[in-house]
Amino acid sequence: MPEAADITRQTLAAVGVSTPADVLARFADLRVEFDRQAASVVDEASWKALRDSWLGRKSGALHRVTEQWLKPASPELRPAVGRGLNELKAYLEQGIERLRTSVASASETAALGRERVDLSLPGVVRPTGSRHLIRQTFEEIERIFLSLGFTVVEGPEIETPYYNFEALNIPEHHPARDTMDTFYLDLPPGSPHLLRTHTSPMQVHTMEKQQPPVRIIVPGKVYRRDNPDVTHSYMFHQVEGLAVDTDITFCEFKGTVEYFVREFLGPAAKTRLRPSYFPFTEPSVEVDASCFSCGGSGCRLCKFSGWIELFGAGMVDPAVYGFVNYDASRVSGYAFGLGVDRLSQLKYGIDDVQLFFQNDVRFLRQFP
């Protein structure tokens, strides 16, 4: 930005000013010069240069006019110089402020232009998470049993041998209690605890606190000493179920199982009960479903039998009622244990249980 007019560097006497009319003409020249320089202001930097050139406290043109024109002016010219100086100051301040507003508005408009969002452009598709397949299976099982009047309860993953074994009619020397099958903990020292091997302990906890009728399912993690492979894991998931009342029969148990299988695998699924043995149920059964892959005609999935084993179940052994002070002559019930990982594998055609725990995004994205 060039400096203000050089005429401000000389006294009025040096440039031949002798009348008030000459004074007004010199001030008019300054306004013309200011307007010429103001026309070249395009941004904040050039505006600041113009402001400092004309209104600077020590080197600005207005300061030089005061020093070179007003102070040495003769008495007859001093009123005209003072009036012209005041008018020039007002003119400069108004012009500088007008330019500041204009520059600020232009700067804001330019910034908005740079930041403008083109709504016609395609959006950025960001990957979204989803519930894990195990969680989806949990929720589906819970939905089915909630519709039958069951409630969901949860319990601790660290249990005592009493609740995990003894109160479920599993005797002291049963193979399931061996250290080869169960994770034992010394917490606190001298007081045996273990990582629960099933969610069945909540059967006992619930019956200790609640008199019949009882209808619960217990979802959660369980732990057993297994070497990981395509069908085994040392940590897996289970849903334990229990129903106890004064008039529950094996027919009701069978109807509940058949309803669950149809809801979970589809209306075409058929159910078969095979005799089995579990310490806390009598009679005990293995629940099979017709192969949903081949429709029962036989394939590799069902080992050409037409049936797929789903879970174990049965009527609650009366001996269990003795641990919770239930009258075995008045009440009856049934219990079942669903392996959530196995059911997920069967329903969704997954051949390796370890895929559930490897956090492979390629696997997880298949089940949004």
Summarize the structure.
The protein has 368 residues and is of the alpha+beta class. It is built from 11 helices and 10 strands.
* DSSP strand tally: 10
Radius of gyration: 46 Å
Give me the side-by-side strand order of the main sheet: 1-5-6-10-9-8-7
* Count of separate DSSP helical elements: 11
- Percent in helix: 25-40%
Determine the oligomeric state from the structure. single chain
- The chain-level structural class is alpha+beta
* Uncertain stretches: none
Strand content: 15-25%
Mean pLDDT: 83
Characterization of the model:
With 368 residues, the protein is an alpha+beta fold. The protein is 38% helix and 18% strand. It is built from eleven helices and ten strands. The protein has helices at residues 20-38, 44-55, 61-70, 78-115, 133-146, 161-164, 201-209, 250-265, 318-321, 340-348, 361-364; strands at residues 151-152, 158-159, 184-186, 192-195, 214-223, 235-245, 271-278, 281-290, 307-316, 332-339. The strands form two sheets. It has a seven-stranded mixed beta sheet, with helices on both faces. Strands 2-4-3 form a three-stranded antiparallel beta sheet. Helix 1 runs parallel beside helix 4 (78-115), helix 2 (44-55) runs antiparallel to helix 4 and helix 3 runs antiparallel to helix 4 (78-115). The longest helix is centred in the N-terminal third of the chain and has 38 residues, at 78-115. The protein is rod-shaped.
